[in-house]
Design goal:
Order of helices and strands: HHHHHHHHHHHHHH
Number of domains: 1
CATH architecture: Alpha/alpha barrel
Low-confidence stretches: 314-328
CATH class: Mainly Alpha
Number of strands: 0
Bound molecules: zinc ion
Distance between the termini: 31 Å
Mean pLDDT: 91
Structural class: mainly alpha
CATH topology: Glycosyltransferase
Number of helices: 14
Largest sheet: none
Length: about 325
Amino acid sequence: MEKLEVEKHAQYILSVEKRKDDFESVVMEHLRMNGAYWGLTTLDLLGKLEIVDKDEVVSWVMSCQHESGGFGGNVGHDPHILYTLSAVQVLALFDKLDVLDIDKLSNYIASLQNEDGSFSGDMWGEVDTRFSYIAICCLSLLHRLDKINVEKAVNYVVSCKNLDGGFGSIPGGESHAGQIFCCVGALAITGSLHHVDKDLLGWWLCERQVKSGGLNGRPEKLPDVCYSWWVLSSLIMIDRVHWIDKEKLARFILDCQDKENGGISDRPDDAVDVFHTYFGVAGLSLLEYPGLKAIDPAYALPVHVVNRIFFGQMKTCPTQQSSPRLQH
Ligand SMILES: [Zn+2]
């Protein structure tokens, strides 16, 4: 089997963070907060987080926060729940959650919950189960799940379950691996996994593995490294990960590396980007690839960070009972 090019991937991520004006960074401009989360989490999993300037990142993150409490994707961009979770995750990586006004931030997230329990992404009102996951994950990391109606939030996610065992973005929406991760993650964090038909969903998920060993997101689609994360994390949360061929999947991910300049692509020989580099390394972490730090399948943060939040300096919190780690 190929080996993971740890040094080269770390240098690749650092180089992307430093480039400000080439094509990829212009396209990524409004997604910079997500990019920071993907890149920095990858560095932490590789054991290389110390190569970035922590104070510089933290002050940039905080300069993206709005009066409402939400975060934009970059300085001067509108706030959205997507970037807000990334901001919280980045601060968590650096053990800097204490710089946040936690009540203000959690009130912003709570304000996005709708009457039926669903969540909007921002003031414009688009509803998606991705936003349910984000709200639940974020508030759990901040120990503020009590700010929302958890029961209604869970019921809404369950209402998006399909006959194939999967989940869609809204009730009746087609099952998709990314959406399944969000729904299963939301249910795991709130201690509600009993709503999942584990065998049925496990079967749908393990059918995503194709001949090359890679995973696709829906039937008849090409395999893509990013699904290593969505599918694997879901299989782990429902305890069915032994239903796929893990070694073949690890080989597929390793074959997607740029062995010269670092970075991981969606499929072998395609161009690399930070998004797929993160999902490739996170996928290998879930596969227990030697030398990588472990990642939590529900919170999408390194396990040591999640443990620090729930069992570290902070006092005991009500969410501990529903933390997925405690269910194992
Ligand atoms: Zn992809």
